[in-house]
TrEMBL record:
It comes from Marchantia polymorpha subsp. ruderalis. Belongs to the NAD-dependent glycerol-3-phosphate dehydrogenase family. Substrate binds at residues 183, 332-333. This is Glycerol-3-phosphate dehydrogenase [NAD(+)]. It catalyses: sn-glycerol 3-phosphate + NAD(+) = dihydroxyacetone phosphate + NADH + H(+). NAD(+) binds at residues 72-77, 160, 216, 332, 361, 363. InterPro entries: 6-PGluconate_DH-like_C_sf, 6PGD_dom2, G3P_DH_NAD-dep, G3P_DH_NAD-dep_C, G3P_DH_NAD-dep_euk, G3P_DH_NAD-dep_N, NAD(P)-bd_dom_sf. Residues 68-235 form the Glycerol-3-phosphate dehydrogenase NAD-dependent N-terminal domain. Residues 257-405 form the Glycerol-3-phosphate dehydrogenase NAD-dependent C-terminal domain. The active site is at 268 (proton acceptor).
Amino acid sequence: MPWSACFMAERTRGGSGRIGGGRGQERPGAATAAADRSAWDMAPGLDVGSGTRDGGLLNSYEAEPDRVAVIGSGNWGSVAARLAATNARRLPYFQDEVRVWVYEEKLSNGELLSDVINKTQENVKYLPNVKLGPNVVADPNLETAVKNATMLVFVMPHQFIEGICQKLKGKIRPDAKAISLIKGMEMGDDGPRLISREISEQLGIDCSVLMGANIANEIAVEQFSEATVGYRDDKETADKWVQVFGTPYFQVTHVQDVEGVELCGTLKNIVAIAAGLVDGLGMGNNTKAAIMRIGLKEMILFSKLLFPSVQDATFFESCGIADLITTCLGGRNRKVADAFSKHGGKRSFDELEVELLNGQKLQGVLTAKEVFGLLKAKDWEESFPLFSTVHAIATRHLPPSAIVEYSERAPRKIVLV
Ligand SMILES: NC(=O)c1ccc[n+]([C@@H]2O[C@H](COP(=O)([O-])OP(=O)(O)OC[C@H]3O[C@@H](n4cnc5c(N)ncnc54)[C@H](O)[C@@H]3O)[C@@H](O)[C@H]2O)c1
């Protein structure tokens, strides 16, 4: 049986059997809007499983089609815009145009990035050689980019989110819904703040999250992968987000565990730094698997200590174990940590980020710093030897080899000087 048929069979067993962009379906704690490619291509918008159009979603959209805006246009932002634009073209309950806010940059040939995207349909800097779609409009003006949008997709390095939210205050529709694709967290005076919470509180709107094993360049060329939407209590909106992003090659499920999903996406970047360090030391797969296992345990413990509502099952969705694996095998955090380790920790992460990532931003080092701040404040370092050690290595208080020099059974307290 081809894989697409397997997915169809699984979906049919599990519930409505809808495919082709139908409403997401629940498996224990999850829903999926996956599709068989041929059915999806030949019958856009059709609910193939039941023979009805999109499980009734269409009716609820008849009054006013949703308008999607994407805030951010880096590597993942461009792919997110491409996915949303594909669905906006084929589904009647979305307006065709998907506007993307571009942090304006002058390219080496003197042209502006937004002009080039509009001229070529390509983000030549962050996602070269991939067409975003004829209905994508790049807009360097934040206010016009989000005008009249009912669905706001936030996707940028997390260090910029606070400033962007400040600028968006009073500029968005009060009934807009948001989703964050951002991996990272901020430390406020009152403790850690998840990005979805920051967006919700600053703008007064609902904010879900989408995380998963999603290396952007692979999804850009339509290689099969999965993602998880985490929502708080608005399942109807979670269904809509599944519609915005789901395609036959990008299978999106939803779970009611916004914090669990977001923490998975955020914390795995610290583990990816550890995996890269191990690669740079020339160690093999056993070592990397051990690092991933220890890292996953720390991810689960940290998430549950902060948010007791976080569910174990979330770690087995795409946002959990699958994202951890892909990030530790590929991805920018692993890559830069590998180089850091190969240079014996003599060149800084900042320097290597500039040299190796062409304007893309590292997340793991910053997240490790933010997490370590909390571990220290709570006196939890001994329970998180891997997270603590990654931070100590990244700040050059320990050599890269320290990543394999602790025992989980007898963790030592790391004292930073
Ligand atoms: N790239 C991936 O494969 C991937 C996959 C999943 C999730 N993510 C997450 O998505 C988020 C966005 O990553 P990305 O890959 O789209 O971006 P990126 O790292 O490729 O690019 C950096 C972006 O930041 C913008 N920028 C630079 N300075 C800025 C400023 N002062 N204010 C606002 N924006 C500024 C740049 O224009 C560019 O769009 C991150 O949280 C990342 O962890 C990335």
